[in-house]
Each structure stands twice: as structure tokens, then as C-alpha cells.
Design brief:
Blueprint: E1 22-28, E2 33-34, E3 39-42, E4 49-51, E5 63-67, E6 71-72, E7 78-88, H1 101-108, E8 113-115
Parallel strand pairs: 7-8
Antiparallel strand pairs: 1-7, 2-6, 3-4, 3-5, 5-7
Length: 116
């Protein structure tokens, strides 16, 4: 008898505590492939979310939310779940160019998104 094939499931551990999680659906802008845990900023004009980059000048330079599932928008903008409040692990976050863990922590704290 051959040995059975073993498969492992390793869930992405984004949550870091018991602070209430508030979720919403956000429109993720075209041209991005993002992983769960991406720190997002919102474009002022279109209200679409982009990976937050410090050098942006369209509103997306300010962290606003955290993506809650992997998404590929290379073929067009798509809706995805985003976290508006809660506690998350800093080690599971993805930052855009120029954004640091410390800066994201400071910007998201007033929004009740706490990074550990």
C-alpha cells in the first residue's frame, strides 16, 4: 500500500486580537495584484483603493484600510472585502513604496486599525 499524499493548509493569520472587526467592500483599482494584508489608500476622485504609496498625490498616500483577501485587478477594477477596524499582525502586512510599519501604525490607529 502506497503512502497517502499529505497536504497542508496554512491559513493566513491576519487577525491579532479580539478588537471588533468592521468589514466593508471596497473597489480595488485596475492594474494591481495584491495579497491579503495589503495596506490600502483611497483615491479621492474615484473612491477606488490602491496599495498605499507615500509619493502618491491622489489621496492614496494615506493608509485607510487593509485588504482582506488576495485580488488580481489586472483585467479591471474589482470589489473585495476590506478591514476598517480590528487588530492585525504587522508581519502579515504589505506596504507600498515608502510606507513603513511605524508610519502605517500611526496613520491607522485613529481609524481603530491596530497593528501589533
Amino acid at each position: 500500500m502506497a503512502n497517502p499524499e499529505r497536504k497542508y493548509y496554512q491559513p493566513s493569520q491576519l487577525s491579532a486580537g479580539d478588537f471588533p472587526i468592521a468589514m466593508d467592500t471596497g473597489l480595488i483599482a485596475t492594474g494591481q495584484t495584491l495579497k491579503r494584508g495589503a495596506v490600502l489608500g483611497q483615491v479621492t476622485a474615484s473612491k477606488e483603493y490602491l496599495l498605499c504609496k507615500v509619493a502618491a498625490e491622489d489621496g492614496s498616500q494615506s493608509p485607510m484600510a487593509i485588504l482582506d483577501q488576495d485580488i488580481d485587478t489586472t483585467d479591471g477594477a474589482k470589489s473585495a472585502p476590506i478591514r476598517l477596524t480590528g487588530q492585525v499582525l504587522g508581519s502579515q502586512l504589505t506596504f507600498g513604496e515608502g510606507l513603513t510599519l511605524a508610519a502605517a501604525k500611526a496613520a491607522l490607529r485613529p481609524l481603530c486599525l491596530f497593528i501589533r
